[in-house]
Each structure stands twice: as structure tokens, then as C-alpha cells.
Amino acid sequence: MSLVASEDRLHGGFRNAEKDGWIFVHLEGRPSAIGFQHGYLLRQEIEDSKRAIELSTTHGVQHSWSELRSVAQKLFVPKLTDEYRQELQGIVDGLKAQGSKLNLLDLVAMNAYMEYSYYYDAAKRLEAKGVAKSHAPEHCSAFVATGSYTKDGRIVLGHNNWTDYLTGTRWNMIFDIAPASGHRFIMDGMPGLIHSADDFGINDSGMVITETTIGNFFGFDQNGTPEFVRARKAMQYSESIDDFARIMKDGNNGGYANTWLVADRKTNEIGRLELGLKNVTLDRTKDGYFVGSNFPINPKLTAEETEFPANDPNTPNQVRHRRWDQLMAENKGKIDVELGKKFETDHYDVLTKEIDPNERTICGHIDKSSRGLKGWQDPYGPAGVAEAKVTDSAMAEKLSFVAGMGHPCGVEFHTAEFFRKHKEFSWQKSLLQDVKAHPWTTFEAAAPVQTAAAGR
User: Fold this and answer.
1) Contact 56, 167 (CB under 8 A)
2) Among 160, 196, 205, 315, whose Cα sits 20 to 30 Å from the Cα of 213?
3) CB of 36 closer than 8 Å to CB of 94
4) Which residue, 5, 9, 6, is CA-closest to 33?
5) What 3-state class would DSSP assign to 446?
6) Residue 250 phi, psi (nearest 5)
7) Which domains are delineated in the chain?
8) 373 has pLDDT over 70
9) What is the pLDDT of residues 376-396, one digit of tens each?
């Protein structure tokens, strides 16, 4: 590629210096330009992200990276839209211009990494006529409220990201993307991914989007469209709750099945889309709230598409659910961004009635003891909340939100101490990082720029 062509594709893109654990990146233009800027500006971060994703995913599904690339070639590449194929190839081109050897299949496998456990589980079930699944840890605690529940009667939405710390410390990007088609949007994300992956974002048509994974879900359609393609498309193109639901349902493959919490700032309406493979439910209101902590809602979906222990009220996800309902009731009419920050860092265990950060608290910590590690999320520990975000209607209008990287709750995780106690996780030693307690920081979409991106 000529120097002139590279400079043309870099036009408008830039990255800021790290701030409180986050890296803010602005990308703009045609799909290939957005991708090129992404790859060129974030080469070191993308390669590091790939190493962490590869180690975490291959250990979890017990298949090699080469096998994951083969699945990507067979199932995911053919389902890419032209736009996102061009963007992913642009990332590869930008990486190559900086000396990287990662290719398109590496990038597709990275983007689809949370769908592999669903694919392999479905294959095992078909082969063995039913077998216990081994999904990665379920992600996230989230809420959305409006009407009489919020301080100003408008929308407030918050989300924290539960994941293994191996990948979670790489979820430190703020992407501000101004595409040539569709809507400008801002989202959190990981280097190399064209979607948020924990799916928190805001677009300039007024849509505010997040989700939490459906607990103990199974099901996968090999002929469907990857979740990462649908999620990115919905973030970029949806203009209403109906739009969002239509895009997410179109070609649904069941991979990374989520309960989506969405809001339309224009109408002050909020929605909850529980997107199973067979059972899909959309609820909506202009006066109320929806919460998520990896529990299924629709009894039919629960029975037909999950192994969720619905009759056990003391599973971590159900305990978190009760805490959410408690917080919503106690704070009705007062909910704002500041309260949202408190919710997402809440350490109250409803079961023990103590302040005790663990797998049952909204701000989850699966790293304190062998009790937690041998229980709910083994073999993916250490895990828990890796970052959190909150926004409201006023902030969303400016494509803005507050974000806390690492543990905004203040409880840090230190690898040296952890490995002294848990040698069984030494396979993570080369890449596992400390999870620090960073302050909440406000981010906002950047003003349009006229200069070419600076390389590293």
C-alpha cells in the first residue's frame, strides 16, 4: 500500500493517551478506513488482546486457536456483511502497515470468541443426546429505568461487565465511531473487536443499549448470523426499540444469548428483549425499570432453552436479581447517574445480609477464596466485574457516559497474591494482570477532526 493511500485511510482517526485505565479512540469514514485506523492505531493492544482471548477461549472450550479459525472460516466469514468484512480487512491492513502478522481469520475468531462455547456445546449435545455444557462465565449486572423511577423522569441506564480478569483487563477501550453510513456511536470495547462485546453503547439517533447474558442457556444455529455482526449492526443502525429488536432477531444464531436492555431517549421508552433461539420476548414501558443479572425471564424459554435452576432462589444470579428489585424500590423517584454508579458497585449480599463482595453481589468478585473459585465459574476464575458504565438521557444526547475501569468499587485484585494461593491457575500467569481501582471518568464523543492519525 502506498504512503498516500495509507494517509488517506488514516484521515480523521486518532487515539488519546490513557486516562484512568481507558484508551479513547476516534474512528471515522468508510468501513475500510475505520478498520485501517483501528488496526494502525492499536497494533500493540490488538496483539495483546488476541493473546488473552486465545488463551482464555482455547482453555475454556478445549480446542486450539487453529480449530477456532477453521470454525470462523466455515460459519462466521460467510455471514459477514460487505461493510463489516471491509472493516475487518481494514483492521488487518492497518495492523500489517505496523508490522503485525495477524490476518482476517484471527480477527473474525477474536470478534466471535464468546460464541464458541455455544457452538461446541450444541455439537456435544447433538452427539451425546444431551450433555452438561461448559460456558464461559455469564456476564454483567445492568439496569434501565424511566418515568416515576428516575429523578427527572427520563432514562438512566447502567452496566457492569463480569468476565474473567484475563480478558477483562483488556476491555479498556472507548470507541467513538463516525461511519459513512448509519449513525455515529460511542461504546466500550476491546482492541480488535468491531462490536462492544459487553454491548454498552449510545448512538446519535437516541438509542442507548446494553445487555446481560442469559444464564445456563444452550442452543446454536450454524446457519445463523453471528451475534457480533447483529450487535454491531444494531448499535450503528437502530433508530427505535422496534428497529433494535428486528435487527437482533434477523438471522439469530443463538450465540452469546442475551437479555437486552434498551432505551429510546427520543420517546423516553425502555425495553427488554430476551433473545433466545426459539423463544423471544420484548417488553417495554415508559414508566418502570428492567434489570439484568443473567437470569432467564420467560418460563417457556427457561424450560426449553436453559438449564437454569429456577427453583433455587439462592443461586448467585437470583440473589443479584432480588438485590436489583430492592434497590429499585428503595430508590424510586431518585435514580440518577450518581445512584447508578452506587448500584453498579454495590457489595450487599442479600443472602447473608452483609457487605461482602462475592459472586452474589451486583459488583461481583470471584477471586477472594477457593469457595468462589471452585463454585460458580470454575475453570474461568479469577473473575468478576472488570469495568462499569452509567449514562442518562442528558448525557446520551451528547454521546457521553461515565465509566470506571477495573474496580471502581475500590476493591483491587493483585496477581502476585492470587498465584501464591491458587497455583491451579498458573496457566494464566503470563498474561493475567492486576485489576486496579480506577475512578469514574466522563467520556464524550470527540469533535470532528481534520488531521491524519498519528502512528505509534
Assistant:
1) yes
2) 205
3) yes
4) 9
5) coil
6) -70, 110
7) 134-440 (3.60.60.20)
8) no
9) 444 457 999 999 999 999 999
